[in-house]
Each structure stands twice: as C-alpha cells, then as structure tokens.
C-alpha cells in the first residue's frame, strides 16, 4: 500500500485564524515532507523530517509550523497567514531521505481570505 | 542555473501513439537520482519511474520508460500507447547532494487527443 492521506482536502481560512493540516502514512517510511504548490508551478519544498526530526527548513516563514508527533504523522500548523499563502499543500513520504522515490498525498487546497 | 529543465510547456499526442517528454539536468554530484511524476488535475503527484545515476540500463515501468543519456545529462520520459487518462502535468525531478535535495522541473502539460 503506497498511500499517503491528507486532511482536510479543502480549507478556507481568514488571516487571523489558526488551523492545522494533517498527513498520515503507514508504509513505515522514515522521511516525510511538506511542499507548497502554486497553480501551474512545480512543488516547492518547505520542510523535511527524517526519523521524526526536522532536517530541512527551506527558510519558511514562522507562520508555518511543522510538527511530527510520530513516524506516521506529520502536521502543518498555520497561523496569521497571508492571501499569497493560498496554494495546494502536498505531503510526501519516502523510505528515507536519499535516493528513494517520494510518495505524495492528494494535497490540501488552502484558500486564505 | 536551473537544476532541472523541461523545455516543453505543452505537448499533444494522438491516442495510442508514443510520446517523449524532455528533461535535462545539471549536477556535478556523481551520485544522483532522477524521477518522473504525473499530476492530474485532481492534484495528487503520482510517482512513475526512477533512474539512478549508476544504473546501467534504462528504467522501465509498464508503458513508461526513461531514456537516460548520462553524457548529455538528459532523462526523457517515453510513454508508449498513449491513453486519454495520460492527460496530465508531468514533472521531472532530481535528488542530489549530501543533503539529498530534491529539485523539480517546471513541468510539461500533456494532452492526449482521441
């Protein structure tokens, strides 16, 4: 089973709201990733977790706060977002950081009003 | 410099025909990996095929094959016998470096015509 699940599928939030995106995988993968994708653009890496520790933060603003409670779960906490943060947020996992392919979830379409 | 270059923003192919999507890459790391992903309009990125830099043979997965030309630094995706469901955005990606950074190209939008 190569499934990565993400909830919610769609999210509309105001600039003063606090919300969270959730990602789950049960493939025993030890690396998990958050990407942001604008329309008709490639995904942009935001964060990488390796063995539940944050290993890469691509200079993402602090209004995005990742959390990896255990090896199967990855959250992205959102606070005081801007309209330009509206995008598709993709979660991915791989066996480990390295040559392995990444498996992506269906994404959360976020709209900030 | 761009790590991954996809020069075809849009491609059209007749159903049942083969199509080649171009990808060139730039790296000085001897160890790297090349990937192709398909993204339908629903948004999910679907892994298609992987080629390692030390692999001697071109990767194949069903109707997908990767034409790996190391000296030219190209990793083109060949889709044989195109189907209507192949209409999607296709991204070439590369993993390289000690930090295993993952880079995506700008993508090619493929439309299969009945």
Tags for this model:
heterodimer; A: 113 residues; mainly beta; 4-stranded antiparallel beta sheet; 0% helix
Structure description:
Chain A has 113 residues and is mainly beta. Chain A contains no helices and eleven strands. In chain A, strands 2, 4, 5, 6, 9, 10 and 11 form a seven-stranded mixed β-sheet that branches. In chain A, strands 1-3-8-7 form a four-stranded antiparallel β-sheet, with no helix packed on it. Chain A is globular. Chain B starts with a strand and ends with a strand. Chain B has strands at 4-5, 10-14, 19-21, 24-25, 32-39, 46-52, 60-61, 64-69, 74-79, 88-96, 101-104, 108-113. The chains are: A mainly beta (113), B mainly beta (114). The A-B interface holds A 2, 33, 40-43, 45, 56, 88, 90, 92, 97-99, 101-107, 109 and B 31, 33, 35, 37, 42-47, 50, 52, 91, 95, 99-102, 104-107.
Biggest sheet of chain A, in brief? 7 strands, mixed
How would you sum up the major sheet of chain B?
Answer: 6 strands, mixed
Query: Largest contact between protein chains?
Result: A-B, 22 and 22 residues
Structural class of chain A: mainly beta
Give me the Rg of chain B, rounded: 14 Å
Task: Please write the string of helix (H) and strand (E) elements of chain A.
Answer: EEEEEEEEEEE
How far is the first residue's CA from the last residue's CA of chain A? 36 Å
> What is the terminal separation of chain B in angstroms?
38 Å
Q: Average pLDDT across residues of chain A?
A: 92
Fraction in helix of chain B:
under 10%
- Taken from the alpha-carbon principal axes, the silhouette of chain A is globular
Assembly classification:
heterodimer
Instruction: State mean pLDDT of chain B (0 to 100 scale).
Output: 94
Measured by DSSP, the beta-strand proportion of chain B falls in over 45%
Helix percent band of chain A: under 10%
Class from secondary-structure proportions of chain B? mainly beta
DSSP helix count of chain B? 0
């Amino acid at each position: 089973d190569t499934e990565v699940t993400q909830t919610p599928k769609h999210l509309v939030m105001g600039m003063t709201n606090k919300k969270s995106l959730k990602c789950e995988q049960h493939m025993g993968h030890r690396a998990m990733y958050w990407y942001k994708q604008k329309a008709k653009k490639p995904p942009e890496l935001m964060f990488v977790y390796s063995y539940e520790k944050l290993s890469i933060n691509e200079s993402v603003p602090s209004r995005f706060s990742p959390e990896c409670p255990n090896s199967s779960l990855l959250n992205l906490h959102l606070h005081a977002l801007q309209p330009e943060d509206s995008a598709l947020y993709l979660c991915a996992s791989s066996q480990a950081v390295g040559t392995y392919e990444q498996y992506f979830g269906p994404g959360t379409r976020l709209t900030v009003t | 410099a761009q790590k991954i270059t996809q020069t075809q923003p849009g491609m059209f192919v007749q159903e049942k025909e083969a199509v080649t999507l171009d990808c060139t890459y730039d790296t000085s790391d001897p160890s790297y990996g090349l990937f192709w992903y398909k993204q339908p309009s629903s948004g999910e990125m679907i892994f298609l095929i992987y080629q390692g830099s030390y692999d001697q043979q071109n990767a194949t997965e069903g109707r997908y094959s990767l034409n790996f030309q190391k000296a030219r630094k190209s990793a083109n995706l060949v889709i044989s016998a195109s189907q209507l469901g192949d209409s999607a955005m296709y991204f070439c990606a590369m993993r390289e470096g000690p930090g295993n950074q993952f880079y995506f190209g700008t993508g090619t939008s493929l439309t299969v015509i009945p």
